Amino acid sequence: MGITYRRILLKLSGEALMGDLSYGIDPAVVNGIAEEVSEIAATGVQIAIVVGGGNIFRGVKGAAAGMDRATADYIGMIATVMNAMTLQDALEHLGVPTRVQTAIAMQEVAEPYIRRRAIRHLEKGRVVIFGAGSGNPFFTTDTTAALRAAEISADVLFKATKVDGVYDADPAHNPNARRFQSLTYSHVLTHDLKVMDSTAIALCKDNNIPIVVFDLSVTGNVRRAVMGESIGTIVGG
Ligand code: UDP
Question: Is 53 a member of any domain?
Answer without folding.
Answer: yes
